[in-house]
Amino acid sequence: MPELTLQDARVKIDALDDQIQRLISARARVAQEVARIKQRQGDTGDHYRPSREAEVLRRAMARNSGADGGPLTDEVIARLMREIMSACLSLESPLTVAYLGPEGTYTQAAALKHFGDSVTVRPLGAVDEIFRDVESGAADYGVVPVENSIGGVVTHTLDALVHTKLRICGEVMLPVHHHLLSRETSLASVGTVYAHPQSFAQTRKWLDARMGKAEREVVSSNGEAARIASEKGGAAIAGLPAARLYGLNILASNIEDDPGNTTRFLIIGKQDPSATGEDVTSLVATAHRNQPGALFTLLKPLADAQIDMTRIESRPVRGSPVPDFYFFIDFGGHASDAKSRAVLDQVRANAAFFKILGSYPKAVI
């Protein structure tokens, strides 16, 4: 077969682009028909289905790894598919998603990674405001940080999960790369560094080695840090979107102490996603006080059933007259599975307080 000339290759790309666009338009028209079908059936709620979305993305990645796969990575294919799904879903049921603002935060990046760019994002100032927004219906879903591989858990999110009626509908794993942003052009010119406390924890060694004399001022978010640095001077620890948003120079890139630095975010809403076969169940419970081995008794059913417990965290019970703790537990499986149901019943029977926070698809990308 003769090699293509440059002109031949461009003609072929144009033809493929035409075909891709026709297929995307056809998919969008079917999405509109889905919306009409659901309206006829009396389904007037939002049409976002976390389980369905996860299944579509996993199939796209499986196709890419199979015989029909190409040079693009699975993650790139999944991100392209996510944007097509996001655009089509906006024709069925436009979504509003609340996140921890202001603009330029990692939580905004997590929201767009999970829902795509065709949603309306709503920045809020605190985690509890996100929960209230979704509970009231002002937002369809919320995105909240829950833990970082270096800085640990986000306590405000855990505390809010105990008392809310909302459910965890999904999770997002976001690799976090910190950058030092400023109006200045050199590190020596920076007198103050602004950042969220988690970001300071994740860049402490780098800052000690290179910015030891600079003041460190804690602010509510990295987006806020970038805004302050753009107005007052100094430098901010934030992501690249914040640099673009506030017109800041990048004095140093990837300053996180651990190159594998990752933050996990939760999607909160009013849905209970159906099982996909690759799910996570989150629960919170307290053990009976003054009983030796109470925590062991609480967790033993998971071990006996050989269920993989992927996470456990503790938080003190506020207002308790004696020391008591909530235990936040994640395990692989869905609450509707027969095996999981039996284990959850046993944990519930051994707990003083018990609440399932949600069963949801494991993060796909």
From TrEMBL:
Catalytic activity: prephenate + H(+) = 3-phenylpyruvate + CO2 + H2O; chorismate = prephenate
Residue(s) at site: Essential for prephenate dehydratase activity: T263
A Gene Ontology molecular function term of the record: prephenate dehydratase activity
An individual GO BP term: L-phenylalanine biosynthetic process
Coiled-coil ranges (or none): 6-33
Residues annotated as domain ACT: 283-361
Major place of residence: cytoplasm
GO cellular component: cytoplasm
Stored Pfam families: ACT, CM_2, PDT
Keywords: Amino-acid biosynthesis, Aromatic amino acid biosynthesis, Coiled coil, Cytoplasm, Isomerase, Lyase, Multifunctional enzyme, Phenylalanine biosynthesis
Prephenate dehydratase domain ranges (all copies): 96-270
Domain Chorismate mutase: 1-96
Top-level taxonomic group: Bacteria
Cellular localisation: Cytoplasm
Function recorded in the entry: Catalyzes the Claisen rearrangement of chorismate to prephenate and the decarboxylation/dehydration of prephenate to phenylpyruvate.
Name this protein carries in UniProt: Bifunctional chorismate mutase/prephenate dehydratase
Lineage of origin: Bacteria, Pseudomonadati, Pseudomonadota, Gammaproteobacteria, Nevskiales
